[in-house]
Amino acid sequence: MKVEIWSDVACPFCYIGKKRFEKGLANFEHNKEIEIEWKSFQLDPTLPEEGAMKLPDYMARQKGLSQTEVKAMFQHVIQMADSEGIEMKMEQINAANTLTMHRLIQLAKTKGLGEIAEEEFFKAYFSGKDFTNIAILLEICETIGLNNAEAKEVIESEKFSDHVSKDIYDARTIGVRGVPHFVFNDKYTVSGAQSSETFLGALEKSYKEWKQNNNA
């Protein structure tokens, strides 16, 4: 049974939601029968690729908040992440376009490495690594297990841009307005970083229906 997950590497709730989903999946009796596909989504595709500002300044400008309000918002997110075993260095993050990372994740998917790619790019982004630097991107790709030459070719071209665009188009087609967005068996949806129990319930309900249909 397939579970599709629309996500942006720059979304803290996507990373938190990933960990909570994984907890629910670990407690699901039939987890070996679940196929997970990560889908690209961009919260702000207008951001420049060079990362001209840090995330606190970007958030203050984007949402019309003071730096004090941004820090309070970040602290709430950091506490949520910490409860899931994630360290988030929000003030060190570059506010830059995530398209290249998404294209590399799409490359990884063709090698059966989509899951590890998603995790490693989340980890890199929220640890404040400079993902606008080609050398840093290639280091992450090496950790994932991607071929250096293939990864470099993707970074220096527009390869897999159409895959990213299609994922975003598909998201809009089904009414996705924010991420993370989970679709179970092409039918049931869970939006946001819900509890592991919510994800477990969605897995059980959709799996039961999927099993009945496949045994019919």
UniProtKB/TrEMBL annotation:
A GO molecular function held by the record: oxidoreductase activity
Keyword check for Isomerase: yes
The protein's name in its UniProt record: Putative DsbA family dithiol-disulfide isomerase
Domain DSBA-like thioredoxin, chain residue ranges per copy: 3-203
Keywords: Isomerase
PANTHER family according to UniProt: GLUTATHIONE S-TRANSFERASE KAPPA (PTHR13887), THIOREDOXIN SUPERFAMILY PROTEIN (PTHR13887:SF41)
